[in-house]
Amino acid sequence: MMPRPTGKLILPGIVAVLAVFGALAWVSGSSSDQPSTCFGSSARGALRDAWKLPRSGSNFRAYSGLGWLLGRTFVHSAVHQVLLESYRRLEAAHPEYRFVYGETGFEAGGPFEPHRTHQNGLSVDFMVPVRDASGGVAELPTSAFRKFGYGLEFDDSGAWGELRIDFEATALHLAELKRSASGRRVRITRVIFDPNLSAHLKRTRAWPQIRNLPFMTKPPWIRHDEHYHVDFETPCRPLGALAK
Ligand SMILES: [Zn+2]
After folding, report:
1. Distance from the CA of 147 to the center of ligand 1, in angstroms?
2. Rounded distance from Cα 185 to ligand 1 centre (Å)
3. HSE of 165, CA atoms in CB hemisphere, 13 A
4. Do the domain assignments include residue 20?
5. CB 124 within 8 A of CB 186
6. Domain count, the chain
7. Is there a domain that residue 174 lies in?
């Protein structure tokens, strides 16, 4: 009789597959159904009971399936609700718009390289909404080759190749974030967007709704041209309370 080595390989094969899925589930993380608790600040903080943003919705998607899978899109529950409500409102008013959100943070918060903040579930990056040469709604290319969208360089008029930043959509998005946040007693404490580009927002129809937002005026440590960064504020516990 010939030996049947394949039978012996089935069990290790199943174990290996389960191990891969287990490891993936572990790094990917899962969304809590409890209200989140944030600790410390966005520059030095942590997060518990984090909520994972959906990979996509009818008018939005994550910047990267890989980033989403690696657990890089967790936020505080209050921020989660603000983001999704603003997307719902935008869909009702402008169903043709498409939005791409960027990196947010890990399930447990904490250091989030290469970002300097994003540590307590209250910081969110949004990739700029764009239009193509014909004026049609388009999406930013966010492949790994493009550093998930973060590697693009827009000029001061808001152009990159054939793509143009849709400043109307950007301003409306910020207006809806502000509106959804205020309805949930969450505040927007900082908006980081390239100063030359945010100047274009002043000519949009939605500008009167967002003119009071705290746009950072000093140059940020990296150029924010392909994305805008928003810091939210909701009551957090001191970082020292985490160990107790
Ligand atoms: Zn950021």
Report:
1. 14
2. 22
3. 30
4. no
5. no
6. 1
7. yes
**Residue 209 Cα, ligand 1 centroid: separation in angstroms?**
23
CA–centroid distance, 117 to ligand 1, in Å, is 7
Q: Specify the amino acid at residue 52.
A: K
Say which CATH number the domain at 193 has.
3.30.1380.10
Distance 24 CA to ligand 1 centre (A): 25
Residue 135: domain span: 36-242
Give the number of C-alpha atoms closer than 13 A to the C-alpha of residue 49, restricted to the C-beta side.
12
Whether 9 maps to a domain, the answer reads no
CA 211 to ligand 1 centroid distance, Å = 21
CA of 215 relative to ligand 1 center, distance in Å = 14
What's the rounded Cα separation, in Å, for the pair 149 and 5? 47
Distance 116 CA to ligand 1 centre (A): 8
Residue pLDDT, tens place only, 28-84: 778 899 999 999 999 999 999 999 999 999 999 999 999 999 999 999 999 999 999
Radius of gyration of the chain (CA): 20
147 CB contacts (<8 Å, ≥6 apart)? none
pLDDT digits (tens, 9 = 90+) for 106-156: 999 999 999 999 999 999 999 999 999 999 999 988 888 788 888 888 888
- In a domain, residue 31? The reply is no
Ligand 1: centre distance to CA 233 (Å): 15
